[in-house]
Design a protein that fits this description.
11 helices; about 20% strand; four-stranded mixed sheet; Immunoglobulin-like; 3 domains
């Protein structure tokens, strides 16, 4: 057997060796994690740059990218020659971050510059048209809408089409990549900025056309505009305010020949688009919850839905259900059956406006309780609908 002292020395040496190995392994592990995290961030930056390049080609993104690369090279050269920075890894990181940041700012500047440049042409054309004395502000604005519509690429029904405005929030991946572009995310969070992009891309469906016309006419002719969304039909259209009245500027669909007064719109649809007329459950100002159904000549019903828990007992009253989920479906619709989604208030009620003399299916849900009811709303009447959930 070894002496006690010798055994202790060998044991101490072994423990010291093990401790040194553990410390080195720990340091290496921290370095690997740090480096891995750093390169992951850089790869995300590179993915964001590539994503921005392909999505925003309508803004001449190649020019913005070249400009950003030049700024990145200039900054790297400055640190290399003037600050004697020789660490290639740090220089690469500096270059990628610079390109990533400058590219975003350049794209934002491109949207603003190109929009002002193109709208200035529309503004001049509007002024020249008015100066002839043969057109009113309304008819001159309609000519601008016609011009834009004729040059627009209508993409409805086309597969594989990537629209810049939809790429901003179309998929979880695009949302994540936009999140890695904080400057662009902040800029396009404003509806006006997003509508400028829509105007410049000059492609899309009725929704893109409506927003492009609304922002362009406001800036070119100084007229008030708004976008109307149909409930019960998958359609949107722009409107222009002229001499105390709103006018429908739905050049792509329902008013392709000339604008129509908003108050005559229901009659216009009934004469020319009867099925669409019967499909409409509500008309709302886009991005708001304001119903303009009556303004457009429809018979509007103010409907109150009361969600109650069915006690299945004559001796106990049915109990109101607060914050129950309510969905309303139109039986007659055009590509958009759901016309309302919301929750009841603390009293178990929710209010909405619906086109009268139409059939709807009302569905309620609260935890494990469900209810369904088919109703036929009466035109121009306040109506209470009792929905029992059990």
């Amino acid at each position: 057997m070894f002496p006690k002292k010798g055994g202790t020395e060998e044991e101490d040496a072994f423990l010291g060796l093990f401790a040194g190995f553990s410390q080195k392994a720990h340091e290496n592990w921290r370095k690997y994690v740090r480096d891995g995290f750093l390169w992951l961030i850089l790869y995300l930056f590179l993915a964001a740059i590539i994503y921005d390049f392909f999505v925003f080609q309508v803004l001449n993104s190649h020019i913005s990218l070249i400009f950003s690369i030049m700024i990145g090279l200039l900054l790297v050269s400055y640190f290399y020659f003037k600050r004697n920075l020789r660490d290639s890894e740090k220089l690469l990181i500096l270059f990628i971050i610079t390109v990533w940041f400058v590219f975003q700012i350049s794209l934002i500047g491109s949207v603003e510059y190109q929009y002002q440049y193109v709208v200035e042409d529309y503004k001049q054309e509007y002024a020249d048209t008015i100066d002839t004395g043969n057109y009113t502000a309304l008819s001159a604005s309609w000519l601008l809408a016609e011009k834009y519509c004729n040059g627009m690429d209508i993409t409805y029904g086309q597969k594989g089409v990537t629209l810049p405005n939809r790429a901003l929030s179309g998929t979880p991946i695009s949302i994540m990549l936009l999140g890695v572009n904080p400057c662009l995310a902040i800029y396009f969070s404003d509806f006006t900025s997003r509508n400028k992009l829509i105007f410049l891309q000059n492609a899309g469906n009725c929704g893109e056309f409506a927003r492009a016309i609304a922002i362009m006419l406001e800036d070119a002719s100084s007229m008030n505009t708004r976008v109307i969304k149909m409930e019960g039909a998958d359609h949107e259209f722009p409107e222009v305010y002229y001499e105390g009245e709103w006018w429908v500027f739905d050049k792509t669909y329902t008013t392709s020949i000339s604008p129509v007064r908003a108050r005559d719109y229901a009659t216009h649809l009934e004469d020319r688009y009867n099925y669409l007329h019967h499909s409409i459950a509500n008309l709302k100002v886009a991005n708001e919850e304001i119903s303009v159904l009556e303004e457009h000549g429809f018979d509007a019903s103010n409907v109150t839905i009361s969600a109650l828990f069915d006690t299945i007992s004559y001796s106990e009253p049915d109990t109101p259900l607060s914050y129950a989920e309510i969905k309303v479906y139109a039986i007659t619709y055009t590509r958009d059956s759901i016309v309302f989604t919301g929750k009841t208030d603390v009293n178990g009620k929710c209010n909405l406006i619906l086109n009268g003399d139409k059939e709807y299916v009302i569905v309620g849900n609260y935890d494990m309780y469900n209810g369904i009811k088919i109703v036929n709303t009466l035109p121009s009447k306040d109506e209470l609908v009792i929905l029992l959930l059990c």
